[in-house]
Every structure is written in structure tokens, then in C-alpha cells.
Specification:
The complex is a heterodimer of chains A (482) and B (307).
Chain A lengths: L1 H17 L5 H17 L4 H16 L1 H5 L3 H17 L14 E6 L6 H14 L4 E6 L6 H12 L3 E2 L7 H14 L4 E6 L7 H14 L3 E7 L6 H12 L3 E5 L9 H9 L3 E5 L7 E3 L2 H9 L4 H11 L2 H13 L4 H15 L2 H4 L6 H4 L6 H12 L3 H5 L6 H11 L3 H21 L4 H13 L17 H21 L1
Parallel strand pairs in A: 1-4, 1-5, 2-3, 2-4, 5-6, 6-7
Antiparallel strand pairs in A: 7-8
Helix pairs in contact in A: 1-2, 1-5, 2-3, 3-5, 5-12, 5-13, 6-7, 8-9, 10-11, 14-21, 15-18, 18-20, 20-21, 21-22
Chain B lengths: L1 H18 L6 H4 L8 H13 L4 H16 L9 H10 L4 H4 L9 E6 L6 H14 L4 E6 L6 H12 L2 E3 L7 H14 L4 E6 L7 H17 L6 E7 L5 H13 L3 E5 L9 H9 L3 E5 L7 E3 L2 H8 L2
The chains are: A alpha/beta (482), B alpha/beta (307).
Bound molecules: guanosine-5'-triphosphate (2 copies) and magnesium ion (2 copies).
Chain lengths: 482, 307
């Protein structure tokens, strides 16, 4: 399901970037895909609606319309907007002096409060603090014992009262105990409750009134669906939250609740829980979360990188040349260098469904580029522009000048001619199309398959067979010419 | 079913509060005398998606509606709820909802699900529900991992007055399952209900552990486990589909217990699960007490979905 989603998004990406100038309709089409992506990631319907409206406005701005790569630009806008909405990063815990700083954890049943209390205690210890855990869940069977067990594992004291029925008293006593035993942070674990349970919400309100926590965090399950807005809003209205902790992100939930909760409360997401163990607490990164919600890995920073490498103006010029079949060896060299730069990103790109496979076989190693560079630099200006001039004697000269063999030169010329032909067909393709074509270029044997150490590395078996075939042909031909 | 009036009341109570804040209820969209048109269908789609039914399944439902409308089977807004009820209720025929019993007791029910969804509580409630019907029940405390999980189930066993088989924290859960099966056989109980540790469906080693527990049970008691119930938190969104897929792969889930339906979430994802993975819902959880369990009734579920 999610794969197909990524595919859909890739389609938008492709169709937009392939078209050159885009229209308002294109933008709206693409936004429909964004809408679906967000809904499937469990972002609340209303939040999605608002989001899409604002992004559509931005996208319709001159920026996208004039952009050379409207698809990429749009993904960037979507991603930036998502990141911005979920940010800023604010993982600091604000301590008071004199202490103790009181932190209260609240949330629905089973969201992860008790576990998170343990994780926070561990985090606080690592920051040189002396936390006290307070077991203020007097509802759930064995809740106190659960927190005690965690405290024991951590060597952090736990205040509890097995006989009390009054969470207000236990909380007050807990803060007291902290003060008298020189603990500087109190972490209050409370019972899970439904936001619509008036009595229990009221009880929590009374606990807050009694101990005035310095920080109140909502602990929210990242697998939550559309309802996240309802509970978060209610908790925020009644308790005035200071932040949110999102749990269970170690699974494969897309985590749209992050956006929903942020949108309705306006409160920062402080930490994320990424496992059951007590060290599985991390800072929240809105940019990573944006990629996760969109279901496309970190595609945007990738696109940005690609854009940096791929100077837009130059690309345009190159494209026009390609279209006319006017590619020169200089351009070819530039193209190879670009591919090399992109090769550095292939590890990241491989992670992205759809693109990953396109990248296979795009390995260009340094040595090869250097050799190509050397050969091209040994050509005269005329030869670079018109490779047909290169006959046997010129070939020998070029080989001598570049420290290669004549058949390396002829192999390169052949590849260049093929490339030029391919690029002519390729121009007008979108980013994805171009990538595919570049992959083919990568598979093509730069030197007619003659010199093993100069080969573009190839991966799949099928390609290896192709290469052997080509190698035979190339060999006999170059022999014949010599 | 008298029980259900209480459910609907509870569900409606929950929904009433949130209604003013987020969206209009379906019933306010479907005002009397209004004709069906594309705008109305769009509003309906919003309702369905907001109930966590998911984009894909919601669109399918809307498509069904649209064809019925084009074929002039329905025309007015007030025809819509009866039509949808009929459409959706057909997803859960009676026989699919019943608890499968062993020919020869004990009937073994294994409870699974992700972390914190409500498994242990559901084990407690189920044991209460069964013992209320005069069945003799034993519990197997196979969550040996989570802090105080064994203790939690022990409290439930006392509360519901049923027996329990347990080991130490951190012992092998499959060994507990083995002993629990022996106890159920030796004590001639009608039911053995096995609690397991919460685990995310993406954790392969833990999913294998679950399969191992199942296999131990199957070796000990022929045909067992007779039911593998996945507990699903009603607030869960689209991730529930992956959960259901992976748990089914590991232990062949036979039914869902939809817990925490007493909140404002509508649990619409079970429609998508039925639609895509074909797992029926068998029970619902509507609170934290032993009596807060009911057999799933599609009609009141759909009623609550649109109220
Ligand atoms: N995989 C994973 N599991 C988690 C995470 N945080 C908590 N859990 C698990 O979720 C389950 C519920 O966690 P608890 O800490 O008991 O939740 P709670 O909110 O205190 O529950 P109540 O007190 O009953 O409302 C346990 O099985 C935890 O181990 C997390 O980040 N990742
Ligand atoms: N309101 C409400 N709360 C429920 C329901 N079912 C379970 N809970 C609560 O949800 C929380 C988690 O329930 P557990 O039974 O401990 O969940 P679990 O799946 O066993 O959790 P782990 O073993 O930690 O994975 C507890 O606070 C329960 O009281 C329900 O139907 N309604
Ligand atoms: Mg707790
Ligand atoms: Mg449990």
C-alpha cells in the first residue's frame, strides 16, 4: 500500500517535471496526491485540508511556475511546509531553581506514559539530574509496581503509596519527598484516561492545581488515527500542555498524528519513543518526520542535493544542445562529472523505492573520470566538437598524450556517439526519465569493453552478459581498425 | 439485544462532545429532504475518512453509493444511512463473529497485538465474560517481558475469580504456554486464555517468538489455538492494516477485539481490515472494567459510526 503511494507521488513528480511549464491544474492535480498521501499517513482530515490549501497557494506562486523542475520544487514546498509546521526543534527541558522541577505525563490509556516516565528519568540522570519518579496512577492494575520495577532497573527512587486512593495527595507528597531528599526533578506518571471522561480529567486538573507542574507533556501513540486531534485538543484545553512526546515510532506507522497534534495544540513535540527499552528516547526531528509522513524517505534533501549539483542554467543549456544533437566532448565530460557527483548520493538514493533501482549500475569511479578527462584534454578543440575527425593517427596522438591506449580512445568516441544519439532522444524527458537514461549510459561500456580496469562498474548478471557480448564485438572491431 | 443500547449510549456520549469541535456528524449532513448530489457525496467521504476507514475503502463505499444513486435506487439524503448500513453490515455475517469452540475442551484463545493496545485488560474481560456464562477459565501469563505484566494479569485473575498459570518475569513465554496447556488439560477447564507481550509487527524476532508460542500450544492441544484474537486499539489509524497483515502472517489471526471504543475514535479501520485482509471483529471493549466487553454487533457499530 505504501509502496504504491510512493509510486503515485513519484508519478506526480515525474509528470510535473517532464512538462516544462506547469499550469494551475497541474498544481491542483499534484495536490490531490499530496492530500491522499497525508490522509493515508493519518493526518487529520481538516488539518490536511488547511495544509493543502496553503501549499496550493504557495505552489501557484511564481516560484514553481517558473521553476525548471516544478515537480521537485513542489515536493520541496510540501516538505518545507510540513517541516515548518511540525517544528521548531525544542528538546530542552526547562529546569527551575530552586528545584524540584515537576514534570507531569498525561495521555490516553496505553499510550506509553509509564515507560516514557522511565525513559525520561534515565535521560535526566544522563544530564546530571537527580530525578524522583512518582507513581500517581492509582487506577490500572499493577501500575505502581510497573513504575517501581523501572525505577529499580535505573536505580532511580520511586515515590508511591499502595494504600492511597487520592492521586492529588500522592502527587503533593511526592514533590515533598523530592524536596526533602534532595531530588531536583520530579516525574509524575499519571493514569491513562479518556479526554471525554469528565471525572478523570477533572481529577488531573486538581493534581495540576496542587503541584503546579513546570512542564506538562502529552504522551501520544504515533499509530493514532484521525482521532488524535480530539484527544490532544481536549488535553491541551484542560491542562495547558507544554509539549508532546510521540511514542512507538520504532514501528512502521507513518505518524501523521505528529502533524495533527501539533496543528491543534501548537505545542512542540519534545521527544519521540523508539522502543520499549528505557534508552529508546530521542529528540524529535521535524524534517525526518516530514519525510516519514510523506512516505518517501528523505527524498527532499536529496532533491535539493541533486539540484545543487545540477546547476539549473547549465542544465538548460545542455538540454538544448542535447535536443539538437550538438553535444560536444566538453559537455560529455561535464555530464560524466555530474554523474560522479551523483554517484556519491547513490547510497541515500537507493533507500527510496522507485529511484533505488534506477541508481543501480550508476557507479562511476574516480579513476575512470580522470582517464576520460585526460583523453578529452588531449583532443584539440576541433576534435572535441567534431569527433568524426578522429582517425587512426589522431587516435594514436591522443592516446600518447593522455597515457592511454588507442583503443581506449576509439572506445570513448564510440560511447560518445551513442550518448549523443541517446541524449537527443532523451531530451524532453522528465527527471526520472533522464535518470533512467543516465543509468543506461552507465551501463554502456565507456571504452567498448576493452580495458577491464577502466570499466564502469556493473552489478546485475544480465548486464554482465550484455557486456561480454559487447566486449567481443568491440574487440574485433578495434582489432580490425588497427 | 439489551446490552447494545448501553453501548450505543456510551458511544454516542463520547461522540457528542467532540462533534462540536471537529466536523459535523453525518446526520447533520444528511438533513431531511436533501437530494443526493456530488457535494453531499464529498461530505460523506470526509465523514468516512474521519472515522479512520481510510481513503481507499472510503472511496469504494462512495462509489457503491454513487452507483446506487445513478441507478436510482436511492435519491434522498435520508436513504443513505439505511443503504450504508446494509452495505457494511453484510461484511460481518453472524457466523464469522462467533467464538470458535473446541470439540473437546479446553478451547484455547490466544491474545496478541501491538504494545499497549489493551491485551491484558481484554484477557481479563474475556475471562469474566466466559465465567459469567458458567465456563471454567484458566489464564496463561505469557507476557514475561513488560514490567509488572504478570502482576497485572494476576490482579485480573483475582478480580474475575479465574485461575492463572505464571512464571517469573523474563522467563520463556513458550514454557509458560506449555504449562498453561497442561494445567488447562489437567484441571479440565473449558477455556485457556493466553496473554502475550505487546510487540510491534515490524519486530521479526518477537513475531517469531509469537509463532513459537502458538506452535507449543498446537503441539500440546490438537486444533489449538482455536481462536487467535488480535486486540486493536480503536484509536489506531491506517497502521492497523499492516499490523493485521503481519500478525496474521505470524499466527493466523482469526478475529479482532476492538478495544477502547468508549472514546471518541470510531474504529473505522476494521472496515478496511475486513475489506482487505478479511478478518472479522468478534468483540469490542468499552471501558476498563471486567464487564466492559461485548460481542461485536455490526449494526450498532455502523450506527455509532454515523451518529
Ligand atoms: N515499541 C515501543 N513500545 C513502547 C514505546 N513506549 C511504550 N511502549 C510499550 O507500550 C506499552 C504501554 O506502555 P505503558 O508505558 O504501560 O503505557 P501507559 O500510557 O503508561 O499505559 P496506562 O498507564 O495503562 O495508560 C508497553 O508495552 C510499553 O513497553 C515505544 O516507544 N516503542
Ligand atoms: N477506556 C478503555 N481503556 C481500555 C480498554 N481496554 C484496555 N484499556 C486500558 O488501556 C491500557 C492498556 O491496557 P493493557 O491491557 O495493559 O494493554 P496491553 O496490550 O496488555 O499492553 P502491553 O502488554 O503493555 O502491550 C490500560 O490502562 C487499560 O485499562 C477499553 O476498552 N477502554
Ligand atoms: Mg501507565
Ligand atoms: Mg499486557
Amino acid at each position: 500500500m505504501f509502496d504504491s503511494l510512493t509510486q503515485k507521488f513519484n508519478n506526480v513528480f515525474r509528470s510535473l517535471s517532464g512538462r516544462g511549464r506547469i499550469t494551475e491544474d497541474n498544481v491542483r492535480d499534484a495536490m490531490r496526491q499530496v492530500r491522499t498521501a497525508l490522509l493515508e499517513a493519518d493526518v487529520n482530515f481538516k488539518v490536511v485540508k488547511d495544509f493543502c490549501e496553503s501549499v496550493t497557494q504557495k505552489a501557484l506562486g511564481a516560484e514553481v511556475i517558473k521553476s525548471l523542475h516544478p515537480g521537485q520544487m513542489m515536493i520541496k514546498i510540501v516538505n518545507d511546509e510540513l517541516t515548518q509546521l511540525m517544528g521548531p526543534v525544542d528538546s530542552r527541558i526547562y529546569y527551575v531553581s530552586p528545584g524540584p522541577t515537576v514534570i507531569l505525563l498525561a495521555g490516553l490509556q496505553g499510550s506509553g506514559k509509564t515507560t516514557t516516565a522511565g525513559k525520561l528519568a534515565k535521560y535526566l540522570v544522563s544530564k546530571g539530574k537527580k530525578p524522583l519518579l512518582v507513581a500517581d496512577d492509582l487506577q490500572r492494575p499493577a501500575a505502581i509496581l510497573q513504575l517501581q520495577t523501572l525505577g529499580e532497573q535505573l536505580g532511580v527512587p520511586v515515590h508511591c503509596d499502595f494504600d492511597s486512593k487520592d492521586p492529588v495527595k500522592v502527587a503533593v507528597k511526592g514533590v515533598h519527598v523530592a524536596r526533602s531528599s534532595d531530588r531536583d526533578v520530579v516525574v509524575l506518571d499519571t493514569a491513562g484516561r479518556l479526554h471525554i471522561d469528565a471525572d478523570l480529567m477533572d481529577e488531573l486538573g486538581r493534581v495540576c492545581k496542587a503541584v503546579t507542574p513546570h512542564q506538562i507533556y502529552l504522551v501520544c501513540d504515533s499509530m493514532t488515527g484521525q482521532d488524535a486531534v480530539n484527544s490532544a485538543k481536549e488535553f491541551n484545553d484542560q491542562l495547558e500542555l507544554d509539549g508532546v512526546i510521540l511514542t512507538k515510532l520504532d514501528g512502521d506507522a507513518r505518524g501523521g498524528a505528529a502533524l495533527s497534534v501539533k496543528a491543534v495544540t501548537g505545542k512542540p513535540i519534545k521527544f519521540i519513543g523508539v522502543g520499549e527499552k528505557l534508552d529508546k528516547l530521542e529528540e524529535f526531528h521535524p524534517d525526518r518526520m516530514a519525510g516519514r509522513i510523506l512516505g518517501m524517505g528523505d527524498v527532499v534533501s536529496l532533491v535539493e542535493k541533486a539540484q545543487e549539483q545540477f546547476d539549473a542554467e547549465e542544465a538548460e543549456k545542455l538540454q538544448q544542445k542535447m535536443a539538437k544533437g550538438q553535444l560536444t566532448f566538453d559537455d560529455f565530460l561535464k555530464q560524466m562529472q555530474m554523474m560522479k557527483k551523483m554517484g556519491g548520493m547513490k547510497d541515500i538514493m537507493k533507500l527510496i523505492p522507485g529511484i533505488g533501482s534506477q541508481m543501480a549500475g550508476m557507479d562511476v569511479d574516480d579513476g575512470e573520470i580522470k582517464r576520460i578527462e585526460a583523453i578529452v584534454h588531449s583532443m584539440t578543440k576541433k576534435e572535441r566538437q567534431n569527433p568524426d575527425l578522429i582517425d587512426a593517427s589522431r587516435r594514436r596522438r591522443i592516446a600518447r598524450g593522455s597515457g592511454t591506449e588507442p583503443h581506449d580512445v576509439s572506445g570513448l568516441v564510440k560511447t560518445f556517439n551513442q550518448t549523443r544519439q541517446m541524449m537527443k532522444t532523451m531530451s524532453g524527458m522528465g527527471m526520472m526519465g533522464r535518470m533512467k537514461a543516465m543509468k543506461q549510459l552507465g551501463n554502456m561500456d565507456m571504452f567498448g569493453g576493452k580495458v577491464p580496469q577502466m570499466k564502469i562498474k556493473q552489478r546485475s548478471k544480465r548486464k554482465k552478459v550484455d557486456r561480454k557480448k559487447k566486449a567481443k564485438g568491440g574487440q574485433s572491431r578495434s582489432k580490425g581498425r588497427r | 439485544m439489551a446490552l447494545f443500547s448501553r453501548t450505543i449510549e456510551k458511544l454516542k456520549n463520547g461522540l457528542r462532545k467532540s462533534r462540536d469541535k471537529i466536523g459535523n456528524s453525518l446526520k447533520t449532513v444528511l438533513t431531511l429532504g436533501r437530494k443526493i448530489d456530488e457535494e453531499l457525496l464529498e461530505q460523506l467521504e470526509e465523514q468516512l475518512i474521519t472515522a479512520d476507514i481510510g481513503v481507499e475503502t472510503s472511496m469504494q463505499i462512495i462509489d457503491d453509493l454513487r452507483s446506487a444513486w445513478k441507478e436510482k435506487k436511492i435519491a434522498a439524503a435520508e436513504d443513505i444511512i439505511p443503504f450504508l448500513k446494509q452495505d457494511l453490515i453484510a461484511c460481518w455475517p453472524e457466523r464469522d463473529r462467533q467464538l470458535k469452540m473446541a470439540d473437546q475442551p479446553p478451547t484455547v484463545v490466544m491474545i496478541t497485538g501491538v504494545n499497549g493496545c489493551g491485551k491484558t485488560t481484554s484477557v481479563g474481560k474475556l475471562s469474566y465474560w466466559l465465567s459469567q456464562q458458567g465456563h471454567k477459565v484458566v489464564l496463561g501469563a505469557c507476557d514475561t517481558f513488560r514490567a509488572a505484566a504478570v502482576e497485572q494479569l494476576s490482579i485480573w485473575s483475582k478480580r474475575c475469580d479465574v485461575q492463572i498459570v505464571k512464571h517469573q518475569q523474563d522467563s520463556d513465554p513458550a514454557a509458560v504456554a506449555f504449562d498453561a496447556c497442561e494445567a488447562a488439560l489437567a484441571r479440565k477447564t473449558d477455556f485457556l486464555i493466553v496473554d502475550t507481550a505487546g510487540r510491534l509487527h515490524t519486530q521479526q524476532n518477537l513475531m517469531r517468538e509469537l509463532t513459537k508460542i502458538r506452535d507449543v500450544i498446537a503441539r500440546k492441544i490438537p486444533e489449538a489455538p482455536h481462536e487467535v484474537i488480535q486486540v486493536l486499539d480503536a484509536t489506531t489509524g491506517q497502521n492497523a492494516i499492516n499490523q493485521a497483515k503481519m500478525f496474521t502472517q505470524a499466527v493466523n489471526v482469526s478475529g479482532i477485539m476492538l478495544a477502547k471504543l468508549d472514546g471518541t475514535a470510531k474504529g473505522g479501520i476494521v472496515i478496511a481490515i475486513r475489506n482487505q485482509i478479511n478478518i472479522p471483529v468478534k468483540f469490542i471493549g468499552i471501558g476498563e472494567g471486567p464487564e466492559d466487553i461485548e460481542p461485536f454487533d455490526p449494526e450498532s457499530f455502523v450506527e455509532a459510526l454515523f451518529s
